[in-house]
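Reading is simple: the token line describes the chain's fold. The lines below illustrate.

. . .
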Amino acid sequence: MNKPLLAALATLVITGAGMAPAAAATATQKTATETKSAAPTLKAVNFAGTVSLSNCSGSVIRFPASADSDPALVMTNGHCLETGFPSPGEVIVDQASSRSFGLLNASATRVATLRASKVAYSTMTDTDVTIYQLTRTYAQIKSSYGIDALTVQDTHPTAGTAITVVSGYWKRTYACNIDGFVYRLKEGSWTWKDSVRYTSACQTIGGTSGSPVIDNATGKVVAVNNTGNEDGQRCTDNNPCEVDANGNVTVRYGINYAQETYNIPACFTTGNKLNLSASGCTLPKP
């Protein structure tokens, strides 16, 4: 996984790897201002609506049917849950939480602290996602800070799409394309279905976990950034492997991945209420 930052640093210390990989990645990634000047086609993609967590990234999201009066939602990874990684097969719903999030504006300046009222949904089974319900509505956030939520696309993403991974934690962006889709992505004890594979330009690092993956053309969220093969190992923690429908395994050292989000909107009905029995909802159930 693109580990939560604290876990990433702990791993570096334990293994004696030092800080070189993170430092090198930080130095080579472009800031928001640099990205805009170097790639005019990405001007529509900025930091507005993204959030920083204590050790991960995330975003304030809404669905096509969400209303401005609905309680706002924040999306990050399942492995960014403050109570620890959900176990394989575990699904958490309606769990009390008061976690705080730093809300960023377009230029990556923190303009507010948002707070959760609960974990609406979290799992690392089939996908890697946590969705928090906030104490404020979309309208309240817009009125106070002038920031809109990012809309989650409700159709399957397309290979070749130009995308940007926007990290609220690092206040950095990673631009590349969707290289393709993975039948099963296996990492340690967890298995994810129909994952997004990036082209090699998106060299995401620890702390980018939970970043929204944005379609440059539409500005909509098509996936949530979650992992990458760090050491070339096969199917181990921090070294996911690809498994096709026939069970063949492929290891792609240095390649990073995300989990699709198009199937999430069908599971949230009127008032942004989670309904895992709703028509078209395919998220794992408790």
Observations:
- Helices lie at 5-15, 20-28, 32-38, 138-145.
